[in-house]
Amino acid sequence: MRRQRRYAFTGTDGLQAGLPSGTPGFTVAAPYSKVGWNASDTRELSFSDVRVPAENLLGELGRGYAQFLRILDEGRIAISALATGLAQGCVDESVKYAKERHAFGRPIGANQAIQFKIADMEMKAHTARLAWRDAASRLVSGEPFKKEAALAKLYSSTIAVDNARDATQIHGGYGFMNEYPVARMWRDSKILEIGEGTSEVQRMLIARELGLAG
Ligand SMILES: Cc1cc2nc3c(=O)[nH]c(=O)nc-3n(C[C@H](O)[C@H](O)[C@H](O)COP(=O)(O)OP(=O)(O)OC[C@H]3O[C@@H](n4cnc5c(N)ncnc54)[C@H](O)[C@@H]3O)c2cc1C
Q1: What is the pLDDT of residues 152-180, one digit of tens each?
Q2: What pLDDT does 52 receive?
């Protein structure tokens, strides 16, 4: 049978789960070995007949699922902002490198092929920023924001992967070396299309918001 996976960021005290470490039935597995996001601690959490003290209740009793969905909607804006930062970092590192690196007697940034690539990367990062800010301003002003959060998450994660690929290409061989920041950006970009709902899930949500639910 397929193994059920559960991922979570856990602190050393396990309080993110609303449970103190050491609660009977609650176990925290060893850290996963990940492709990227090495600064975050990701582990399997297991709950087996765990009894939770009433004072540890998070949110409102009986509304867990609704609260969970709302957290996901808000989380998509955060992931979108994170993806935008990564996409912009790719632009900044590429501009720097394109000025620094000389090939065939001139900076590689003097070539229109490199300039156009970087201009497209900047366009995407800028547009992603507008998308998550729009979703965030709707959230803050109390307007519906589910579709806008999904659009922002889908777009920004897609272009973060694009920009990471292009930035790596602009860095040539050094793009594959860990000493340059773009290598980390490349490794860290892919999860943005997966976590907080995959790109396929975002498309399903957007279609549903457009009245196309099956
Ligand atoms: C580093 C990391 C950190 C994470 N942190 C957290 C966390 O803090 N909290 C948390 O709750 N989760 C976390 N996750 C889990 C993450 O949200 C899930 O991995 C993600 O939502 C995808 O779910 P899944 O892995 O079960 O993929 P699956 O659901 O098995 O999907 C596999 C593939 O099938 C596609 N698919 C599935 N159903 C459909 C469909 N109906 N139509 C079309 N395509 C479909 C998916 O899009 C995907 O491409 C984390 C994951 C990772 C890798």
Answers
A1: 999 999 999 999 999 999 999 999 999 99
A2: 86
Q: Is the CB of 7 under 6 A from ligand 1?
A: yes
Q: Ligand 1, atom 13: nearest CA belongs to which residue?
A: 7
Residue 55: per-residue pLDDT: 86
Compute, in angstroms, the gap from residue 121 CA to the centroid of ligand 1.
Answer: 27
47 phi and psi angles, rounded to 5 deg:
-125, 120
* 200 in contact with ligand 1, CB cutoff 6 A: yes
- Give the Cα separation of 198 and 76 in Å (integer): 10
Atom of ligand 1 nearest to the CA of 198: 47
Residue ranges in the chain whose pLDDT is less than 50: 1-17
pTM of the model: 0.90
d(C-alpha 148, C-alpha 135), whole Å: 5
- 191 C-alpha to ligand 1 centroid (Å): 10
Residue 92: predicted pLDDT: 98
Domains and CATH numbers, the chain: 8-56 (2.40.110.10), 64-209 (1.20.140.10)
